[in-house]
Description:
The protein is mainly alpha-helical and 105 residues long.
Amino acid sequence: MPWWIWLVLALFMLAMIIAGLVYAGVHGMHALRDVSEIGGRLGEKFAEMSDTDDDHRVMTPVSFTQPLSAAQDRYADAHAEVIKRKAAKRERHIQAWNRWKRFNN
């Protein structure tokens, strides 16, 4: 091969390496900007989480210091909510199946 072909190939290789570095640098700067924005938002959220409003919060006693009937009542209420959610879900499924049954009629 003539010497000028090697020169063209070497210049092309250098141009591609430089273009790749520029491409990586530009995208790296964009990524750093995005990461800094996300970090700023996370910092704000963590700052909000660390702020305590003691005057607005009612301190409830720890569950093991309360009588057993209080825990039983909370459990019964929570279980009743679970049953209500399951019944509502079942009702939604029944309604959906009824709509699908009438779809092709």
